[in-house]
Amino acid sequence: MAGRVQGKVAFVTGAARGQGRSHALRLAAEGADIIAIDICEDIETNHYPLATTADLEETARLVEKLDRRVVIVKADVRERSQVFDAVRRGVAELGRLDIVVANAGICPLGGDVPPQGFLDAVSVDLIGVINAVEAAFPHLTAGASIICTGSVAGLAPGGTDNPENGPGGAGYSHAKRGVARFVHDAALQFAPHSIRVNAVHPTNVDTDMLQSAPMYKIFRPDLENPTREDAELAFPAMQPMPIPYVEPGDISNAVLFLASDESRYVTGLQLKVDAGALLAGTNSGAPA
C-alpha cells in the first residue's frame, strides 16, 4: 500500500544519518514532506563521532530524490529555542505538521566518560524528546501522531546502566526509562484531542552508535581494542532470535505504522522491535 502518509508533514530529529535518516526517507517514500534537524557537531563526552552537516544535506538530497519537499535545519535538541525555531521555519515553508519523530540520541558509554556524560545523555535522549514534542505541539491537530524513540535499555534493568558502562550508560538508561513514562503520560493527556503518542523501543540497530569503539568495548571487555569483527561475535547475545542486530529500516517500518492512519486508535503503546531481547525479563501474564 503506497502513500500511507500522503500529503502529511513529518518533523524528524537526529535525521542526518542512522535511524533518523531512515525514518525520514521511509516517510517521504510514503508521501510525507520532511522537516529534518540534527546537531551536526560532536559532543565531548560521547566518544564516537556524530553526524555532520554534509550528512544532513545528504538526507535532504535523498528526500528530494523521492520527489518530496524537505527543510533541513542544524539544531541541537538540547536547546529549546533552536528546536522551536526549526519547527516554526519548517511549518512556515511546508504549511502544516502532522507527524513528530523524536529520534535524536547519543550513548556515551565507557568507564572513562566523566559525570557530565550522565547529563549529556539525559539532555539529548530525554529532554531533547520533550523539547521536540513541545515545539511541535502548537502546530498539531486531531489525527496527529507523535513517535518517540526509546530503547530496550529503558525497559530492562542491568543494561547500559551497568556501573562498568560509566555515567553515560546510566544516563542513557535513565533517559530511555523517562521516554517510556513520558509517552504513557502524554498519551493520556493528548488523547481527548485525538493526538496520539507512542514509543518504539529497538534492540541494537546497525547504525554508527552501535558500530563504534565504545560499543565494541562494552560487548568485548575481554579485548583491549576490539574490532567490529570481534563485536559481531557478541552482538547476538542480546536477542533470542539469532541475529546480531536489526536494521534501521526495521524500526522505520514501525514508525511508519504509528505515523499512518492504520494506527489511528493506537496510543500509549510501548512497541518493542527487539528480536525477543526483553522476553527473558517478562512473563506471559498467565495465572500461576
From TrEMBL:
GO molecular function: oxidoreductase activity, acting on the CH-OH group of donors, NAD or NADP as acceptor
InterPro entries: NAD(P)-bd_dom_sf, SDR_fam, SDR_subfam_1
Keyword Methyltransferase: no
Pfam families reported in the protein's UniProt record: adh_short_C2
Keywords carried by this UniProt record: NAD, Oxidoreductase
Stored CDD domains: SDR_c
Source species, domain of life: Bacteria
Record bears the keyword Disulfide bond: no
PANTHER family, per the entry: 3-OXOACYL-[ACYL-CARRIER-PROTEIN] REDUCTASE, SHORT-CHAIN DEHYDROGENASES/REDUCTASES FAMILY MEMBER
Family the entry assigns: Belongs to the short-chain dehydrogenases/reductases (SDR) family.
Record-linked NCBIfam families: PRK12826.1-3 (NF009467), SDR_subfam_1 (TIGR03971)
Name assigned to this protein: SDR family mycofactocin-dependent oxidoreductase
Organism: Cryptosporangium aurantiacum
